[in-house]
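User: Before I run my own analysis I want an independent prediction to cross-check against. Here's the chain; please return only the structure tokens and, at the end, one sentence I can use as a sanity check.
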Amino acid sequence: MTTVEKKVVVKNKMGLHARPAALFVQAANKFDSDITVIKDNQEVNGKSIMGVLMLAAEKDSIIIINATGKDAQEAVIELEKIAAADDLDNIFRKSASPSLRAAVSKHTIKRR
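Assistant: Structure tokens:
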């Protein structure tokens, strides 16, 4: 079984807030590997939206993405792209499933 671990700097200006966290979790769930995310010695399930949100990973936070399984390398590469992207809201609008976009926007406070 393969284990891959990567330190990543969160670059999105809002950190891994609702939309980016949802995109991260949606991507993580495409893989068979077990995925964990660590920030400041707190380890959470990378396939859990509540877990990822609990990390409160702000811009410039360092997180560690760990994947164990047959597709661990691919998982870490894809999740690193999401965590290190500086414009995740645009990525979210383009790639998240319609039901995920609707669910997140329903629970997001609109800025004026």
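Sanity check: Residues 17 and 38 are 16 Å apart (CA to CA).
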